[in-house]
Design goal:
By secondary structure, the chain is of the alpha/beta class. It contains 15 helices and 17 strands.
Length: 398
Amino acid sequence: MSNSELMGLTDSYVMSTYGRYPIALVRGQGVKAWDADGKEYLDFLGGIAVNLLGHSHPAVVEAIREQAGKLIHCSNLYYSEPAAELAALLVENGGLDKVFFCNSGAEANEGAFKLARKYHFRKGNKEKTKIISLSHAFHGRTLGALSATPKPEIQEGFRPLPAGFFHAEAGDIEALKAIMDEQTAAVIVEPVQGEGGITVLPASYLTAVRALCDQFGALLIFDEIQCGLGRTGSFFAYQGVGVRPDIVTLAKGLGGGLPIGAVCATAEAAAGFQPGDHGTTFGGNPVACAAAVATMKTLLSANLVEQAAVMGEYLQSRLAALKAKYPTLIKEVRGAGLMIGMELTQPGAPLLAKCHELGLLANVTAGTVFRVLPPYVITRDDADRAVAIVDEALASLA
């Protein structure tokens, strides 16, 4: 099928929940992808921070093939070797103690909210149910995760939302102090707010949030669904800022392209869950876990976490150089590792459309922030090519 045929078929039969770009991708290899008409793209979005190793990495492909030939599904009524191996990799490299597997980021955050409330319930503190999130946050689209995502434009039409969720201004510790109390069960924070415009929360602020949680006996949840697993230059983002949360949620890049999420927790917090408290049919699926094991082992053995830090610094510096060239178009370039946003002085859609035309995949978040989330395997040549495309696109707008 051609691009137009594939788009027509999709629009005829699939619900209209996405504002899709007019691109129908059919194949990918490394940092490149091709559409149904054969056009080549440099993929600097990576499935929205999912393809950490690029498209169709041989280790991931082989792990999927091998596991699919042995056992595709067995349910959590039984023990599973891929799930056990993946849990050990996350614990040994992430610094927390226990893992629960699910299928997506929203599910991981839902699990974290339930764990926080059940933890306090089991300790006899039944009144500690309040969950606090931050402005500009994005934690998912299920009803609970939506309640922790204070964006009226995506909450509209879904009320009444679950009760017990409150919001404070991101980066303002006094605003958080004002709503923290003895009823607070948990505070959830993205160390780097991805959908909110690639906003890096300062280590000093995160340290102060940790102290407030300790003061009120609340659990600290880090949503690392987008910024975790090496994206910011450390295996978990929290390790790079030196602030240890009680719970970390993961998804996106964990499965190397297959759907999987995880809730990682300290032994103390994890004790909140006992058999029957939480579950999922597909969480910890053997094929998804096998893909995740291959992804994590490659990430670690090939030093790709360090690569993300080095290449992120290089790419950010190259994009920052464009600010001097286009001062009326670019307000700021910011980010951490290979999680970079270029904030524009105008809506970002025209720039993105031109980049697509020129063969670069990226996206726009928060309306004006041109966002890149490339795989960790990019080279300097890849970064230079991407920046050259952005440069040409900006020139057309200027």
